[in-house]
Amino acid sequence: MPASVDPERLRDAEHPPEKTRGPVTLRRGQVQATTTDQRLLDSRGLSDWVHTDPWRVMRIQSEFVEGFGQLAEMPRAVSVFGSARTARDRPEYAMAEELGGALARAGWAVITGGGPGIMEAANKGASEGGGLSVGLGIELPFEQGLNQWVDLGIDFRYFFARKTMFVKYAQAFVILPGGFGTMDELFESLTLVQTRKVNQFPVILMGSAYWTPLVDWLRGTLADQGYINHSDLDLFTLTDDVGEAVRLVAEAYERRVDKPRVATGDEHLGDGGA
Fold first, then answer.
1. DSSP per-residue letters across 7-22
2. Nearest to residue 248, comparing CAs of 175, 150, 184?
3. Which of 50, 80, 161, 203 has a CA between 20 and 30 Å from the CA of residue 253?
């Protein structure tokens, strides 16, 4: 390498800082320190926020319109959640990849958050299994970009718009080990089922060694102290078996009054049939 070339500068040129903002990709000096969600929730500042928030409503509306428009013809699907930090040599990664493939072969589209780790594994399994692999990304200060196995990807600025798509267009949730984001998705899904905002919606936890301490706490603390009913523990199923997970999803589907069509992997969503 010539002495005049700064190795740090060369590394930055090859792998510049990058962030997505909705459908826009920003690099180098264009990268902002905060996300759209952060700016929305920040109540500090002058009263001119009163005049800018109405425009945010239009942006929020556009995210729902875009999501609904792209996913309106979605075939039957399963949302798969789990950690973005799971390494490819971890058994949880292999389980998620096997799950994605099994769901695809059984005629299910697979929806994930589109990131790395468990999400990448499930998308990879679905894509290699010939199924429809969907990723719903989010603007974050880290873990940017959709993984390479996403066939249909949508980037969101706002968590609540993205969460709506996960629930509206899936007929089941399968949740593998993860952190705060995964826990958020788990407890939100259980709350929706418990309060009957969604019906006939199985929630399946995969990875018994990881989930058993949490289930014990739910039973021994929340249920025993009356914060939830003991029957609420029946709202989810714990398993390590991919075949059982797919079977539970299929059984719940057969009990549905409305049955979305079987996924073939040949779908072209949001193109208006063009």
1. HHHHHHHHS--EEEET
2. 175
3. 161
Across the chain, what does the average pLDDT equal? 87
CATH class label, 64-255 = alpha beta
∠ CA 57-59-61, nearest 5°, is 70
Q: How confident is the model at residue 39 (pLDDT cuts 50, 70, 90)?
A: confident
Cβ-contact 104, 247 below 8 angstroms: no
* Domain coordinates in residue numbering, the chain: 64-255
**Nearest Cα to 20, choosing from 153, 159, 160, 141?**
141
Determine if the pTM surpasses 0.85. Answer: no
Mean pLDDT, residues 186-201 taken together = 92
**What is the spatial distance between Cα 115 and Cα 110, in angstroms, rounded to a whole number?**
13
Handedness of CA 126, 128, 134, 135 (dihedral sign): positive
Q: What is the DSSP letter of 223?
A: I
> In the prediction, which pLDDT does 33 show?
74
Q: How far apart are CA 247 and CA 174, in angstroms?
A: 12
